[in-house]
Amino acid sequence: LSDTPPSAHLIFGKNSDRPRDEVQEVTYYPAATHPPGSVLGCTYIQIPQVEQTHAVVLSKPAWMWGAEMGANDQGVCIGNEAVWTREEVNPGEALLGMDLLRGNNNGSLDGAGCPITESLAV
């Protein structure tokens, strides 16, 4: 999209495979500054919070912290996609794919807004 002129409009669309009766919220979270050492409560676990997060608009299941899709104030737009695998699930609770999506979109995972922090994606 680097050839796209600033006056152009882009549309992001994504189908969801979430359950039909699950409530999907469209929410706005403003950019924020967090004190050093803050903890971020994700869907099932807590992780260290970065000091600065981006503003985001998200579409997310009402019951979880993570998001199905979202866009931030830095121009990053991302959507979740289910990955079906035969790998065994590690015991215990962890970050969900939708937690990684939200964290990357608002900068909560590494402050960069897009790259996944590999140590969290285990």
Task: Provide the gyration radius in Å.
Answer: 15 Å
- Tell me what portion of residues adopts beta-strand conformation: 15-25%
Q: How widely separated are the two ends?
A: 31 Å
Residues in helix, %: under 10%
Mean of pLDDT: 80
Structural class: mainly beta
Number of helices: 1
Strand arrangement across the biggest beta sheet: 1-6-7-8
Principal-axis shape: globular
N-to-C SSE string, H for helix and E for strand: EEEEEEEEH
The count of β-strands is 8
GO molecular function: cysteine-type exopeptidase activity; dipeptidase activity
Organism: Neogobius melanostomus (round goby)
InterPro entries: Peptidase_C69 (IPR005322)
Protein name: Secernin-2
Summarize this, please?
By secondary structure, the chain is mainly beta. It has 1 helix and 8 strands, in the order ββββββββα. The chain has a domain at 24-106.
Task: Describe this protein's structure.
There is one protein chain. The protein has 122 residues and is mostly beta strands. It has a domain at 24-106. It contains one helix and eight strands, in the order ββββββββα. The protein has one helix at residues 97-106; strands at 24-29, 32-33, 39-41, 46-48, 52-53, 56-61, 69-72, 77-79. The strands form three sheets. It has a four-stranded antiparallel β-sheet, covered by helices on one side. The chain has a two-stranded antiparallel ribbon with strand order 2-5. It is globular and about 50 Å long. The N and C termini lie far apart (31 Å). Mean pLDDT is 80; it is low at 110-119. One of its GO terms (molecular function) is cysteine-type exopeptidase activity. Belongs to the peptidase C69 family. Secernin subfamily. It comes from Neogobius melanostomus. This is Secernin-2. InterPro entries: Peptidase_C69.
